[in-house]
Amino acid sequence: MMAAKNHLSVALVERYFEVGGGCTHWGTIPSKALRHAAKILQDLRRNPLLNEFRAASQLTYPQLLASATRVVESQVSSRRRFYERNRVPVYSGEARFIDANTLEVQPALGKPIRISGKHIIVGAGSRPYHPPEIDFAHDRVRDSDSVLRYTENPFSVTIYGAGVIGCEYASIFINLGAKVTLVNTQDRLLSFLDDEIAEALSYHLREQGCVVRHNEKLQKLEARERDVVLHLESGRKIKSDLLLWANGRTGNSSELGLEAVGLEANSRGQISVNGHYQTAVPNIYAVGDIVGPPALASAAYVQGAHAVQHIIDPSVESHRQEMIPNGIYTIPEISSIGRSERELQEAHVPYEVGHCAFKNLARAQMTDERVGMLKIIFHAETLALLGIHCFGDGASEIVHIGQAVMSSKDLNNIRYFTNTTFNYPTMAEAYRVAAHNGINRLT
Questions:
Q1: Which residue among 6, 113, 222, 405 has its CA within the 20 to 30 Å range from the CA of 333?
Q2: Residue 56: its pLDDT value, please?
Q3: Residue 51: predicted pLDDT
Q4: Is position 133 within any domain?
Q5: Are 97 and 162 part of one and the same domain?
Q6: Quick one: what percent of the chain has pLDDT higher than 90?
Q7: Can you tell me whether residue 36 is helix, strand or coil?
Q8: What pLDDT score was predicted for residue 52?
Q9: Are the C-beta atoms of 121 and 101 separated by less than 8 Å?
């Protein structure tokens, strides 16, 4: 859209039969719609004012999946209109490089066509990693894409892999009433998070009934007619109705014909890029999951926009990836931006921390969303914000207040929050409480 609005001649190639990509069809949108449905069920079960609606809490997994359909359809419709309104032709089929300026597009039916461009941006995304020894054709063995097509209501679920996707689905299934075992190949959950936030998530998952097994490795998987048994190297065996494999993703680069232009993907199918998302071939850019972390839909949007900005104006500054917040849609949510305490300690940066426990906020008490906290990390001398970490209902929204202040050269100071009037009662006033808490710690 940015290229079209800047009067460039643009074409889009989409191999799926509808526009929107993996985010829209089998990733972010359907999984978060499912998560929202699970959250509504949780609210129904725990709120005494809603007793008369308890029957709704007996909805099955397939029924809840259906609730995502209208969201996907709406997203596809709006995106299709964007292309039509901006006169961007959409070519349906699988594209591969012929040379640095030419793509061959093979449609599902008919002969291939070739299209050329001065610049090419690759946004082919990623897919779940499939180890060869796992039988993904078995109905009880699913990945994060195919689990959204599961047609039964599982009593027990084993999730292998405790990254973002694994933790999100653990939250979803445990709130749907399933018995969940989360198998983690590492020694802690989500090691890229601030330690305090990761520990809070781990505690809350266990409190909800999720069994978390750390430092476990797959030995073999036994998929049977009525169940599936996960055999671990430790000797432990875990039986469940459904096995969700959530251990890694691979960039969709193997069919792009990268060798024709002298490019090569790494072992995870990812393409290396510079700060402007240029590959080793300067007129070819790559954005989104195919370039690796942070592998977020929000990041892909701004990466694509920056690539076009660089095409239009090569003097533009490199993109600041550190200002992209992460959002983890567990129940409750996690979101953060900036550095963690561990990173600051390792860098010997003097810092202080301000906390606000959500249970102390009037708004959280009214909505009965008391689990969670806001954590502000700031420089002990300059008072500049260094990190915002949030765990709790609405965390992915709350973090943007801190993001805006951190991004401003003029406003980036912990005292901004003590000098600002927040609506009362709101969750946003957590910033004021946390800021006072942090400033009071200074000596």
A1: 405
A2: 55
A3: 66
A4: no
A5: no
A6: 89
A7: helix
A8: 65
A9: no
